[in-house]
Amino acid sequence: MRPVHVLTTFATIFPAELPDKTMVASLVLTARSGQPLGVWAGASTALVAHAGLAVAAGGLISALPDRLVALVAAVLFAAGAVVLLREGGGIDEGEAVAGRGGIGTRWGAARTALAVVFVAEWGDLTQLATASLAARSGDPLSVFLGAALALTAVAGIAVLSGRALLRVLPVVLLRRIAAAVFASLAVVSVVEVVRG
Hints:
Number of strands: 0
Largest sheet: none
Number of domains: 1
Strand content: under 5%
Order of helices and strands: HHHHHHHHH
Distance between the termini: 25 Å
Radius of gyration: 17 Å
């Protein structure tokens, strides 16, 4: 395990997940249930499972030739940057995702958050980014740890102070920061292909 890969993964995934539908869904589920610990536990469980799946996919990708992996990573990061810049979003989309009943208890909130977040995260940008980072780094454990820490931290922020964060840092700004990180990683990957 290499700390630099943990930190790089965290720095990539954290800003990308902040403006994501998962944060919005966690905000709404917490507001509706009054069970922040239950929502955090359920959302975090789903997010860690997705990080594991993404790292496993990255392991399969890493079996490909290095130049192809770098090219695929560049394309994924560039596409992620474009999607982040073009995506809309706000509380309304989260309320549509989270509009489910039976969440008044801690267990009910955890179960609902687990189901909502697990379904919502399939094919998400951060899942694709995690797979790309795992493939490029050759250090799946560090990438998994960095992604899991970033994702559970965002879920924690969402349930504790998400609405306040969104008042201070607009979703548009968070998306632009994440897009800049993704674009930078795309450039680094292209440089690797060219140097190949």
